[in-house]
Specification:
This protein has 277 residues and is mainly beta.
Length: 277
């Protein structure tokens, strides 16, 4: 195991005994990923191996760590992806590109957004002012920042842009806004839960947080209150439990709205709940 370490304003790499494996000669140094670490020298970034030798010379304005053989790189105000030799695997044709997820990356070209595939080809043309992540092969999008609809991966409208906002589909429904009120639409664009709420969150484990008269509770997929709006703040359900706040204190509730952990804490991390294996 190796770790980055700093001495006299320079970064290097030490082993478990604290001995220098790579002498501290770099201005900045990232963690090793796929046997390479991004390193900065003289205001430029490159990649070093575990001996400290440059594998990719420091000629880039910014670099991210490698993932699946590709690293996002910025040079001359344009973004692309390089391979482990420093060659452009996806040409620097973009104003910005997000990381790949499920083989797609959100990308900006000429101030419009679309999605590229792993080869850098446009799957969803860059025609949109903004768009969200794909879920069930659908993504919410807007052409003008004002009206939202839902597109497929080719960029064709599956739900016309007639809404003030549409969120990501979760459990078959997407939150939608119309005239400052929120409800939920299905994949045809029909209102499954009428826009009667001041705000809502995504469905998780069959429930969605919703607010009424400045108090939060949870509704089911019929729009009925399953947990009455009695809380100052809430979080999504995970494994049958959700964070809930009251009078500036936090606790944890179950799906009946009962306190499993009373609201005694100024803050709570939900990390102690482990996922089932």
């Amino acid at each position: 195991a190796l770790a980055q370490a700093k001495m006299a304003d320079k970064w290097g790499v030490i082993d478990k005994s604290g001995a220098w494996v790579v002498e501290p000669t770099f201005d900045e140094l990232g963690p090793f990923s796929e046997a390479l670490a991004r390193a900065k020298m003289a205001d430029k970034w490159g990649f070093i191996d575990k001996s400290g030798a440059w594998v990719v010379e420091p000629t880039f304005d910014s670099l991210d760590s490698f993932s699946k053989g590709l690293a996002r790189a910025l040079k001359d105000r344009k973004v692309g992806f390089i391979d482990k030799k420093g060659a452009w695997a996806i040409a620097q044709n973009f104003n910005w590109v997000f990381h790949f997820s499920n083989g797609l990356a959100k990308a900006n070209y000429d101030h419009k957004w679309g999605y590229i595939d792993i080869k850098g080809h446009w799957l969803t043309p860059p025609n949109f002012d903004w768009l969200l992540e794909f879920s069930d092969n659908l993504a919410s999008a807007t052409l003008d920042g004002l009206k939202w609809g839902v597109i497929d991966k080719k960029g064709d409208w599956m739900i016309a842009p007639d809404f003030d906002y549409v969120g990501v589909f979760s459990e078959g429904l997407a939150l939608a806004k119309q005239e400052d009120r929120y409800g939920f639409i299905d994949k045809t664009g029909a209102w499954l839960i009428a826009p009667d709420f001041d705000s809502v969150g995504n469905f998780s484990e069959g429930l969605a947080m919703a607010i009424k008269e400045d108090k939060w509770g949870f509704i089911d997929k019929s729009g009925a209150w399953l947990i009455a709006p009695d809380f100052d703040s809430v979080g999504d359900f995970s494994e049958g439990l959700a964070l809930a706040g009251k009078n500036n204190y936090w606790g944890i509730i179950n799906k009946k709205g009962h306190w499993v952990i009373p609201p005694l804490f100024a803050d709570i991390s939900f990390n102690f709940i482990e996922k089932s294996k």
